[in-house]
Each structure stands twice: as C-alpha cells, then as structure tokens.
Amino acid sequence: MDHPYASYRSLFPVLASKIHLASCSQGAISKTVSEAMEEYLNSLLTTGVNWSQSIQEVEKAKKGFAKLIGAEPNEIAVLGSVSDIFSTIATSLSFEKGKNKIVTTDMDFPTVGHVWLAQRKFGANVSFIPSQQEVIPIEYYERFVTSDTLITSISHICYFNGFKQDIKAIAEIVHRKGSLLFVDAYQSAGQVPIDVKKMDIDILAAGTRKYMLGIPGMAFLYMKTELAEKWKPRVTGWFGQANHSKFDIHQLTPAPGARRFETGTPSFISAYAATAAIRLLLEIGVENISSYLNELAQFTLDYGQEKGLQVVGPLSADQRGAMTAFYAENAGQIESIMKERNIIVSARNDVIRIAPHFYNTKDEIRQAIDELATVLNTK
Q1: Which parts of the chain fold into alpha helices (H)?
Q2: pLDDT of residue 246
C-alpha cells in the first residue's frame, strides 16, 4: 500500500528515529504544533503579557474543533481535561425521582464510571451495560436504557480494545427512551468522522493529546445550544459568566451556550497547540484519514494474527477504530522493552495497543508486530 501522506512525515521529528504507534495515548507532535507553542512562549518573552492574543487563540481552537465535529462555535466550551468535563456535566444534573438513572458501559474509561458513581450520594441510580465478547451489542441499549434514564454515557471508540460504536443508531434508541446521549470522543476525534448534528449527539467530550495531535491541558465540550441554555452549572468560574471582564462578584450570570460550563483561565499554550493541530487535521480531512487508517487497522489485524498474536476485541476493521489491542501478559514490561527498541506502543492492563495515525506506514506496523511477536515468544 502506497503511503498517501508521505509528504507530511517530515513534520513529525520523532519518526526519524522511532516508530510511533501510540496515538491512543499521545499522538506524535508535529513541527507546526511545536512552532505554535514557541510562538506563545516567545510572545511572553518579548512582550511580557499576551492575554489578548492568547484569548484569540482559544477562540480559534474552539472554531477549529466546531468545524471538526460539525458544530457551531457557541456550542463549544474549553476545560482542562475530559475528566473535568464529565465532572462538570455530572454536577449540573438533578436526579429526581422517576428520572435519576445513569446508564454507562463497562467498556468506558474508568474516569467515566468514577464520576457517575460519585453521584450516587446525590440520588443517581448508576447502571453499567455489560460487554459481551469485548463488544457492546446494540440491542443491549434497548434493554438497559429505560424511561427513567436521565443520561446515557458512552464512548465512541473503546480506549482498551478499539471497539467502535454506531453512535447514530444508539442515539435513536436512547432518545426514544427519553434519555440524553453523552459521547466520550477522546479516542475518536481526529481519526474518524464526527458530525454531532447527523449523529444527534446531545453532549460530547474530547481531548487534544491523542488523535487530535495536541498536548494535555485542553479539552472540548460540545453541547446542543437548546440544551445548554436550560442548564445552570454548579461548577463555574469567571470564564463561565456572560461578561467575564465585568468583575462583578455579586452577580451570577451564566454565559450563553456551552461557554457557561467554562471555569477559569484555560491553558493558553495548549490552545496554541490545539489550533495548529486541528488546522493540520482539517487540511488533510478526517474522512481521508479515516479511510487510510481503516486499511492500516485491517492490515494490523491480519498480520498480527498471521504472526500468532491474540487480538482482543472485534476481528473486523469495520467494527473498530485505528487501534488494535493484542493480548500480552505483563504488558507494561513489554511496552518498556519495545520502547528500548525504538518502537512506541501503549500498554493497558493485559494488552499492547498499536494505534497508528495518518503519518504511519504499513512497514512500520509490520516491524512493530514482528518485534512484539519476538518479545512475547521470548517471555
């Protein structure tokens, strides 16, 4: 398979000396992102204060993310992490009798379960949809989401094994039951197309350090405008106010749209990085990236099995994102060994995750799987 994005590889210095296949944990940093961060630092060094310029960069990042997911800029808020977003949303809910059920799945990232379980003391009834053979059958949503469900909280792509869910189909089910749909898109934003309007997503959270090719410190919250206007966040701050520069300590006036969920000063350097990274993703096109990664995912599945590795999760690339998980006892130790051999993969519990992005090649994946098979066979 020819590499359609070979001309972009020079933007990622790490690829000159290492095989970087850990986008599910941290995407490779490009020169454009590095230059954007340097721009932020240099402006501080030379001007001393760059507040206005930095605020503009935050707005650019919001607009870029809105375009990435088919939303409007006023439907986007920025917070420090996806965990912050989940906590902010959870504490904004009222758990009333007859409408107090929270439905999530046992395949979601632990933060999700932790946040929802913490709401039990406030009246939430938390229910976990169980996985079956490393996937969540679509019919389980019909069974577990009931008329008393307030919000259904799910991942688009599973962090552990790459299983991808049909968000549009799930949205139809949960909305018919009278539930809101909250999607964790941390493992999908930047690698698969997302259109929040066509998918009918009520709330979505995504961070910048994985497939969005940024750094930690900034996460994006999407919420439908008509929904946001009804909510009054209990976690707030001056950036969540209608006029944050008014400095009126006696008035609480939530900002319009999703911005009311913002709290304090965001990580400006992360905003610079996010703007540059999203610009690159939009330039290439997520549809194009997704098509290429689907080919890489199928190759990873096929070649991994050919080398005797045990796939964890779906065996078809159509049911997963770019990441493929292989069973590996002592995965953390194996990750370290692979790193010593200049191959960056990501361990979780008893799996090694191979997660390419558009800058990777089939030959890199082949070399990584060869090395992984060798390491596993010598353990």
Answers
A1: 31-47, 51-69, 82-90, 110-117, 139-144, 167-176, 196-199, 225-228, 268-284, 286-306, 331-340, 362-378
A2: 82
